[in-house]
Backbone:
């Protein structure tokens, strides 16, 4: 089924373009041993801009044949041809050294290549664009970037064009900027001049795009039926929005007509919205149409085209409707000892996409033999079994394997893992990394189960490698025990890349930060260290944050909102101002975020009173009045921004030519530069010591 565009992944990995961890082991990216000594566990990022800039800033000025003047003439062309992989590695520190024209070329290239950046990249890029007065070029900028722009700098005459462009973005990127997200919706409705609650016309809906996903449920029912097209883009609907959707569908006002007239094509055109159809509504749909659609949904599930959440929601609702209809028509007598009525289940039976409609959970118990289950457990579990049916399968497997499920079968039952107790997991024999990845990669296992599965693997002399960390994802780090986290070798942690640990409890964030500091603590200057440790700063103590503030790292607001609230409350106002640097104005966009609001409560002050309402487009007025009112008539002109060579962060100004060298140089030379940039040389035999070591 077609669905909304998936938000960009929150974690980056070395194997993102590979068919699987086994096919792309990150250990293959280790630098070979040379006469200079080993370089164990250096992280190879897809975006080497920062590291190469740090290197070339030291060494590039002395390189023969690469004069500043020579690169000036061609660097616009270099930005215009930069590939997507490099652009996805965008870092604000080096980009802050770009002139207005080159920053503009970079942003336009991102738009033309449809580069998907993450929230922490977009927020600081939006501030750089504001500093250079580039917001007026918004028709040529990525829609995601517009979501982060200061709405007070959008001219009233441009509000419809701006709204239409921004509405093509992914509003989930604003998860940590609740005030910006609310202001965006308010500004869009003000631009349209609609009433409250809004009754949106077809033309309004066409303009608003994904912004409708934040509308109240009453607006869904009151608006033009074309609202279905907007709702298809929503990553999820609230319970109230789901109820409103069903009310709208029941009314018959949509292109599908009344439920009794629905057909397969119309249901499939609903895309992900079909998974929200209530059981009472399914009872009104013609049986043949419902069966055809159910079969198509199961086929999509077995092919991996539907999320577990969506398919379970749909199956539960549909089967509930069928059970109600059957009860109303025949009122069958149910009993635990009911014999097999539908016929014994075979391998061929399990191929039927309508299998779950023929065999309810009691029939599954009666008709599924041990031999068929043992040989076809993977085929059976490809069906979206309800929890009751999953328990039946688990019980049957326990009878087949009383001493514990064999390892080769464990890899096939990932969808059942959440049903197993710690005592049962301790009976398992887990010796392979592939088994661990199969059991944990599906996000079904719960906290204690994750820890137990990993421990069984470690007890058999297994090791937690970077490939394993990448495969199971950052959220699984949250559920590892402190002892297991400590067992991760720093070299493997470096190779795993930036793992998303934002959902971890604070105690785990603290432990993961110290593991990250152990892994990246020797990566050279603070700018390089910060770039690597940034994903784990949610566990950083106050002293670490104060040290980073002194280094002028210009922390992005996304990272800031994920800091330890207790550590943040120990920072002074000046610490916060210096820590955020040019991004301090973003506090207004996130002032109601729990982390920031708790900090403000501890001070008993507002952002205005603290002088932290700085507008990024007015760097000369660090305590000036912040304006985020929608559709004002002023817009910073190019001349009002800083000089094109003025640095906008605490880093020393770098020559753009050296940054662009990262685009132009072959990958082998980039690796050489990167290899020397991440840390000091180890002994006097290093021939590049003068140029590459700090």
Residues:
């Amino acid at each position: 089924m077609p669905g909304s565009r998936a938000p960009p992944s929150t974690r980056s990995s070395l194997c993102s373009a590979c068919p699987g961890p086994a096919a792309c082991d990150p250990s293959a990216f280790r630098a070979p041993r040379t006469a200079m000594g080993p370089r164990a566990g250096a992280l190879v990022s897809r975006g080497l801009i920062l590291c190469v800039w740090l290197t070339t800033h030291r060494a590039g000025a002395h390189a023969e044949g690469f004069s500043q003047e020579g690169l000036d003439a061609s660097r616009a062309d270099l930005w215009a041809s930069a590939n997507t992989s490099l652009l996805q590695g965008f870092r604000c520190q080096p980009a802050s050294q770009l002139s207005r024209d080159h920053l503009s070329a970079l942003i336009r290239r991102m738009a033309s290549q449809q580069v998907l950046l993450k929230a922490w990249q977009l927020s600081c890029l939006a501030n750089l664009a504001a500093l250079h007065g580039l917001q007026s070029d918004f028709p040529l900028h990525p829609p995601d970037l517009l979501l982060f722009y200061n709405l007070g700098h959008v001219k009233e005459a441009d509000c419809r064009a701006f709204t239409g462009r921004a509405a093509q973005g992914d509003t989930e990127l604003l998860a940590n900027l609740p005030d910006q997200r609310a202001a965006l919706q308010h500004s869009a409705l003000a631009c349209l001049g609609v009433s409250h609650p809004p009754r949106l016309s077809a033309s309004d809906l066409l303009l608003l795009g994904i912004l409708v996903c934040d509308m109240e449920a009453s607006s869904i029912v009151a608006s033009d039926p074309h609202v279905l097209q907007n709702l298809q883009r929503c990553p999820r609907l609230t319970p109230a929005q789901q109820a409103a959707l069903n009310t709208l569908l029941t009314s018959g006002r949509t292109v599908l007509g009344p439920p009794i007239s629905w057909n397969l094509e119309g249901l499939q055109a609903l895309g992900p919205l079909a998974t929200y159809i209530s059981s009472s509504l399914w009872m009104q749909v013609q049986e043949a149409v419902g069966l055809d659609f159910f079969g198509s949904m199961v086929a999509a599930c077995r092919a991996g085209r539907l999320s577990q959440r969506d398919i379970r929601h749909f199956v539960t609702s549909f089967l509930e409707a069928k059970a109600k209809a059957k009860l109303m028509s025949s009122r069958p007598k149910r009993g635990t000892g009911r014999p097999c009525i539908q016929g014994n289940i075979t391998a061929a039976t399990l191929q039927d996409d309508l299998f779950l409609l023929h065999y309810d959970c009691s029939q599954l118990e009666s008709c599924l033999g041990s031999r068929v289950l043992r040989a076809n457990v993977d085929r059976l579990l490809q069906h979206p079994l309800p929890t009751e049916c999953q328990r039946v399968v688990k019980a049957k497997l326990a009878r087949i394997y009383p001493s514990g499920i064999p390892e080769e079968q464990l890899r096939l039952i990932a969808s059942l893992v959440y049903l197993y107790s710690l005592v049962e997991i301790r009976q398992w024999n887990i010796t392979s990394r592939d088994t661990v990845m199969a059991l944990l990669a599906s996000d079904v296992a719960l906290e204690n189960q994750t820890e137990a599965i990993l421990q069984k693997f470690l007890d058999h002399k297994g090791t937690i490698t970077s490939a394993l960390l990448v495969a199971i994802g950052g959220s699984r780090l949250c559920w590892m025990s402190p002892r297991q986290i400590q067992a991760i070798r720093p070299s493997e942690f470096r190779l795993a890349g930036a793992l998303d640990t934002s959902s971890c409890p604070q105690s785990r964030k603290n432990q993961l930060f110290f593991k990250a500091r152990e892994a990246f603590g020797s990566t050279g200057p603070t700018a390089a260290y910060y770039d690597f440790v940034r994903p784990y700063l949610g566990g950083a103590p106050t002293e670490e944050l104060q040290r980073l503030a002194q280094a002028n790292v210009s922390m992005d607001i996304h990272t800031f909102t994920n800091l330890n609230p207790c550590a943040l409350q120990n920072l002074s106002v000046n610490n916060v101002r210096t820590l955020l640097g040019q991004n301090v104005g973003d506090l207004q966009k996130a002032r109601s975020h729990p982390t920031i609001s708790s900090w403000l409560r501890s001070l008993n002050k507002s952002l205005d009173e603290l002088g932290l309402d700085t507008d990024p487009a007015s760097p000369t007025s660090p305590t000036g009045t912040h304006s985020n009112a929608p559709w004002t008539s002023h817009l910073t002109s190019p001349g009002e921004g800083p000089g094109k060579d003025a640095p906008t962060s605490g880093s020393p100004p770098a020559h753009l030519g050296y940054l662009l060298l990262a685009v132009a140089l072959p990958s082998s030379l980039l690796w050489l530069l990167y290899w020397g940039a991440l840390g000091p040389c180890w002994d006097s035999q290093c021939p590049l010591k003068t140029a590459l070591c700090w």
The chain has 41 helices and no strands. Confidence is low (pLDDT under 50) at residues 1-76, 619-627, 632-694.
